[in-house]
Q: What sequence folds into this?
């Protein structure tokens, strides 16, 4: 993208035209912001023209508003109806990717543009729908914005406004005032808000915060909610066992310790200390074959995925998590419920034969699984949507009891299946360790593909198998590791596994 | 109830002689209509003139005072047909709709109107939906004026010029007995500014008075032999009369010096863009005073040969700035020059692009190219020989995702298409046609349902080839707006008459939602001046549809899927029509929120639902999003090194429509979703009972926690 030529004009008054564009996501109130700016300009003895593009873009699409203003005189200036690349003085972008879009369209140039942007994200569908992590890289946008803008004001304007019980248009208007890009006093801005007469007080509060951010620089980027760092709690009797486990984890090579501690927490929370020590045994079997040469990368990877594999999502885990005390409090706060208000909780369950069989004793479960008739019957009996009111005793009791069945868990069919899968995965992943370390690390990472419930889980498993089997074909090649990484990335691109199929084809083409 | 209310703004329409009106273009147009003694107005909503219809509707009271009749016409065809009142009666009438699609629909009536000719001024105000923000195929309405011989105004995009064009339009129409089309582009419709007003003028003859003294003249009927006379009349009388009026009243404008070797001919609507380019080149000042001779076509049809050739006198290079294609104006003016044997060089679509919007950059580049060729001496050195290297930035096009429009938060249409996607997962892909309306967003991700749209109300009609059925029935979508626009006859009637075996789904969201929530016949809202509450299902029965399924709660994904499956598999012969009804959430929220807040303040028991996701149960596979795409259902990264993928998360904009839970259940996705109903002002007994449950539950939870180890302080 290249900038157009800087404006050169004999008529200085052309330079006096202030050109301001607002790029927003439909429904963000860009219209309100624009009308405030208009009112402001006219109240300060400026002629002002605003335009917008309505149409279906209003429906959550990217929209753009455009304002031009100039000091009033005896004649009407000729204003443009749309922003031009390289010819915008103030660009307000109400979302981080809109900041990027503004820069891409050339509306932000180092010679003139004050860029006021909100760092918050309204994820585009393409970012949300990828089975893996498809979220766009905001830092990249920030970096380019710093290059492109003459003056840059970036902050989470959405949060700033919402914290004040207002909406983003108000904090952006405040930032506009604080940026000093317009030759008007703060009071003039505020009276524009009052003139509009809607939600004045919250708007003014959000305006003030936005103003300060622009004036005194951005407050430290809101760090992740400072909740207490996760830690295991419980009766002192059991805590003894926990402490010994922690000690064991601390005896691991330094780079592995942190992740191992987290993994340990996860599996102990999932089951108990005995299970935790099983986790450490599994991990140790990997550590034993690893060395400091590659910075224990293999063990670190194993520590992560063994924990995830051992803490599988069975009915017991879901029921346990859904019936815990802290969850109820968390939801109350999230929903902003006052003390005098009630919060009713409805859970959406849809157990199928597979989940039921998974809960049967291993042998019986295996037998039932093998018999389609029995499976069909189980489906008839159990498979239907169940809405459970977990704020009421009956439904809660059901989950409470299910969640308390850890004593039985290790005998279930599901546990058997998961353990078989775990062993197979570990042994397959480490088979080629002597020849190709990186290859094995990548194979371990493939466990990431196994996630979700029911069909999604099944799809994940089959993708996992496809990648592992294809990996067999290329085992021994120099670039084997890279190819596994590619396969694994492809598998996360779309749910149907189209990308993966393609990647597999390519692999088959050269083996 | 339209999405946007202009009740407050409408008061400005009462302004009188010498006042100043400041506001939006569409309001200015309405004011101009009233100042020019319009007798009746009508139209059909659609971007960019939806708001003009809303303004007219909100101004109905004021117009009634003046004796002006307002119709919210059933379609653009109906609107254009209404202008028939100006054929026999000296009454000024104006209708509005979007172009070119609205003009397509209206063209039958417009052609007949143009043949008959008019006595009273007939004005068609068209919002030309072209360029950025457009939602339709990129065409021009210009061709309709040429084929039917009506005149086209394309005024400079500022309020004084636009309002003057309304006056000129009526007078031109009356002077030449020809309907006049006034084109306003997307941004002109919403451009704000000021103009000084005049008093409103009641129509000298009202439609009421006219109907009381009916007139008719067989000569005006479009039937041979009159139709042949009409054609002659157009060429011999109406056209010359129009040209004379345009020249005498200087509807077209000239700027810049009279001499000069170069000149620019520009559509009025493109004038500001052109001046901005010249300003940036240092060839025009802030007021548009320029060194380059400019001929502004505020009338783009007919083109005035003599005016143009006079403008060309003494010039060696002339460029025509005409947005869109085909280049009608350039062709016409070119042939004038050729026939006159003129030698000057004509530029246009060679330096400017044939297709696409003339944005600031396009205009600047085109004009620069022209000047480099025609008058390099006029250009500043910087332009001729750019010394400063244009700075190049890292490319973001790979990073920044596109953001197409989609269903709003809580949209009742989302679950319908979620159900369709699930049905296709079960029964395989089907032949599906879409229609015009919000539901067309279903063709985009995540649903990607439907492969075509042939026009408003034509969803089922565009599946007619497949009416014979087969092993997989064709499915078509139709909105309530499209249904009443012409779907009832063109689509449903067509299905019934041809014994179609296909399935039609009518998406009934209680409004013409995509155009801004205007009422339609089947709207549930009470409307003082319009007849609502006419059920679609009744109309279906009326035209002979036997297989009708009414769904009154589209959020029940399971139910929708069931009904759809039945429609696709039943042995019933003949059209199968599903009416899926739930109120547009945008309008519902606007309607209910104030009421709800009042009730809460008044201490009444209100429960407000919202959905949530347990992030420790969500595994981050995002299957739910691929069946929803709801703006409030997003993702968040957990601060947990053990987790690779972001998990689903629902923000506070959730309106608790229920789609998430329904989909998670019907598609058997996962148990991560929960609904939390916050009960405001619960009754004492209710609180007491809830308290009992909570106490017992709390006791059980603590009891368990004293017996096990658990992870605490996990960041959710």
A:
């Amino acid at each position: 993208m290249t900038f157009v030529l800087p404006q050169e004009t004999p008529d200085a008054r052309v330079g006096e035209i202030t050109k301001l564009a607002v790029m927003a996501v439909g429904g963000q109130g860009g219209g309100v912001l624009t009308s405030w700016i208009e009112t402001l300009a006219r109240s300060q003895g400026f002629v002002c023209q605003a335009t917008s593009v309505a149409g279906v873009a209003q429906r959550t699409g990217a929209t753009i508003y455009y304002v031009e203003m100039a000091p009033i005189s005896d004649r009407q200036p000729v204003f443009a109806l749309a922003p031009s690349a390289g010819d915008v003085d103030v660009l307000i972008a109400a979302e981080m990717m809109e900041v990027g879009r503004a820069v891409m369209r050339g509306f932000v140039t180092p010679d003139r543009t004050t860029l006021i942007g909100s760092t918050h994200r309204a994820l585009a569908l393409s970012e949300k729908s990828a089975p893996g992590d498809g979220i766009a890289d905001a830092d990249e946008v920030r970096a380019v914005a710093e290059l492109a803008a003459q003056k840059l004001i970036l902050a989470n304007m959405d949060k700033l406004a919402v914290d004040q019980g207002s909406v983003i248009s108000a904090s952006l208007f405040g930032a506009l005032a604080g940026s000093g890009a317009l030759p008007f006093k703060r009071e003039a801005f505020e009276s524009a808000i009052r003139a509009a007469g809607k939600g004045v007080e919250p708007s003014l509060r959000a305006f003030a915060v936005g103003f300060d951010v622009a004036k005194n620089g951005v407050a430290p980027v809101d760090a992740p909610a400072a909740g207490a760092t996760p830690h295991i709690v419980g009766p002192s009797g059991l805590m003894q066992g926990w402490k010994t486990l922690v000690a064991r984890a601390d005896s691991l090579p330094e780079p592995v310790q942190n992740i191992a501690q987290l993994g340990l927490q996860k599996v102990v929370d999932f089951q108990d200390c005995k299970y935790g020590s099983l986790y450490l045994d599994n991990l140790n079997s990997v550590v034993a074959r690893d060395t400091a040469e590659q910075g224990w990368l293999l063990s670190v990877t194993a520590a992560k995925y063994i924990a995830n594999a051992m803490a599988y999502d069975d009915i017991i885990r879901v029921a346990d998590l859904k019936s815990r005390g802290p969850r109820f409090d968390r939801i109350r706060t999230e929903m902003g419920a006052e003390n005098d208000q009630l919060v009713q909780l409805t859970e959406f369950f849809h157990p199928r034969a597979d989940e039921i069989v998974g809960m049967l004793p291993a042998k019986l479960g295996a037998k039932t699984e093998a018999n389609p008739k029995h499976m069909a019957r189980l489906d008839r009996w159990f498979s239907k949507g169940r809405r459970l009111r977990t704020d009421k005793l009956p439904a809660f009791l059901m989950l409470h009891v299910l969640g308390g069945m850890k004593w039985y868990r290790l005998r279930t069919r599901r546990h058997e299946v998961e353990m078989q899968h775990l062993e197979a995965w570990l042994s397959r992943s480490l088979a080629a360790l002597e020849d190709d370390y990186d290859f094995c690390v990548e194979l371990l990472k493939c466990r990431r593909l196994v996630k979700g419930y029911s069909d999604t889980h099944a799809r994940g498993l089959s993708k996992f198998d496809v990648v592992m089997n294809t990996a067999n074909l290329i085992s021994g090649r120099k670039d084997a590791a890279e190819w596994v990484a590619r396969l694994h990335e492809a598998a996360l691109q779309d749910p149907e596994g189209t990308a993966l199929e393609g990647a597999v084809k390519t692999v088959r083409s050269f083996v | 109830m339209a999405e946007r209310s202009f009740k407050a703004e409408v008061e400005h329409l009462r302004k009188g002689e010498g006042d100043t009106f400041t506001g939006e273009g569409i309001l200015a147009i309405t004011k101009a209509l009233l100042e020019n003694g319009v007798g009746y107005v009508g139209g059909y909503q659609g971007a960019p003139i939806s708001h003009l219809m809303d303004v007219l509707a909100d101004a109905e009271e004021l117009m009634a005072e003046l004796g002006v009749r307002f119709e919210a016409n059933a379609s653009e065809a109906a609107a254009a047909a209404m202008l028939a009142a100006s054929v026999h009666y000296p009454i000024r009438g104006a209708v509005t709709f979007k172009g070119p699609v609205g003009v397509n629909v209206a063209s039958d009536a417009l052609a007949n109107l143009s043949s008959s000719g008019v006595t009273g001024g007939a004005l068609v105000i068209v919002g030309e939906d072209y360029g950025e923000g457009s939602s339709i195929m990129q065409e021009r309405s210009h061709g309709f004026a040429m084929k039917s011989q009506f005149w086209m105004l394309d005024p400079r995009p500022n309020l004084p010029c636009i309002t003057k064009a309304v006056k000129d339009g009526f007078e031109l129409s009356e002077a030449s007995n020809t309907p006049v089309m006034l084109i306003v582009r997307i941004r002109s419709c919403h451009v704000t500014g000021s103009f000084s007003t005049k008093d409103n003028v009641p129509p000298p003859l009202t439609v009421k008075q006219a109907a009381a003294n009916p007139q008719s003249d067989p000569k005006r009927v479009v039937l041979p032999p009159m139709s042949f006379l009409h054609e002659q009349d157009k060429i011999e009388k109406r056209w010359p009369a129009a040209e004379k009026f345009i020249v005498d009243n200087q509807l077209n404008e000239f700027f810049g010096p009279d001499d000069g070797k170069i000149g620019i001919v520009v559509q009025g609507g493109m004038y500001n863009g052109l001046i901005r380019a010249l300003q940036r080149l240092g060839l025009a000042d802030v007021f548009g005073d320029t060194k380059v001779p400019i001929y502004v076509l505020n009338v783009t049809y007919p083109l005035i040969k003599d005016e143009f050739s006079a403008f060309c006198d003494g010039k060696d290079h002339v460029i025509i700035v005409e947005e869109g294609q085909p280049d009608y104006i350039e062709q016409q003016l070119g042939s004038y020059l050729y026939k006159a044997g003129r030698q000057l060089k004509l530029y246009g679509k060679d330096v400017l692009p044939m297709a696409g919007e003339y944005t600031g950059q396009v205009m600047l580049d085109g004009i620069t190219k022209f000047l480099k060729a025609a008058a390099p001496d006029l250009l500043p050195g910087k332009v001729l020989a750019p010394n400063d290297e244009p700075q190049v930035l890292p490319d973001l096009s790979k990073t920044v995702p596109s953001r197409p429009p989609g269903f709003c938060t809580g949209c009742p249409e989302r679950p319908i298409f979620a159900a369709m996607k699930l049905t296709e997962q079960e029964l395989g892909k089907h032949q599906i046609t879409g229609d015009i309306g919000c539901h067309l967003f279903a063709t985009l991700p995540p649903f990607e349902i439907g492969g075509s749209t042939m026009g408003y109300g034509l969803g089922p009609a565009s599946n007619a080839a497949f009416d014979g059925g087969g092993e997989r029935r064709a499915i078509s979508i139709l909105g309530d707006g499209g249904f009443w626009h012409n779907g009832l006859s063109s689509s449903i009637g067509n299905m019934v008459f041809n014994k179609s075996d296909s399935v039609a789904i009518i998406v009934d969201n209680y409004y013409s939602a995509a155009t801004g929530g205007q009422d339609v016949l089947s709207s549930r809202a009470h409307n003082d001046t319009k007849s609502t509450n006419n059920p679609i299902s009744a109309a279906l029965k009326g035209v002979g549809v036997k297989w009708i399924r009414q769904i009154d709660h589209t959020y029940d994904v399971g139910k929708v899927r069931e009904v759809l499956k039945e429609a696709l598999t039943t042995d019933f012969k003949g059209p199968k029509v599903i009416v899926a009804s739930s109120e547009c959430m945008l309008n519902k929220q606007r309607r209910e929120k104030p009421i709800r807040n009042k009730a809460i303040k008044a201490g009444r028991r209100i429960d407000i639902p919202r959905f949530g996701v347990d992030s420790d149960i969500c595994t981050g596979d995002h299957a739910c999003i691929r069946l929803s795409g709801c703006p409030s259902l997003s993702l968040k990264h957990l601060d947990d090194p053990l987790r690779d993928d972001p998990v689903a998360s629902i923000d506070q904009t959730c309106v608790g429509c229920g789609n998430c839970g329904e989909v998670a259940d019907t598609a058997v996705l996962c148990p991560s979703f929960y609904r939390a109903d916050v009960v405001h002002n619960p009754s004492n007994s209710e609180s007491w009972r809830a308290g009992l449950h909570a106490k017992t539950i709390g006791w059980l939870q603590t009891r368990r926690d004293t017996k096990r180890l658990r992870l605490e302080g996990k960041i959710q």
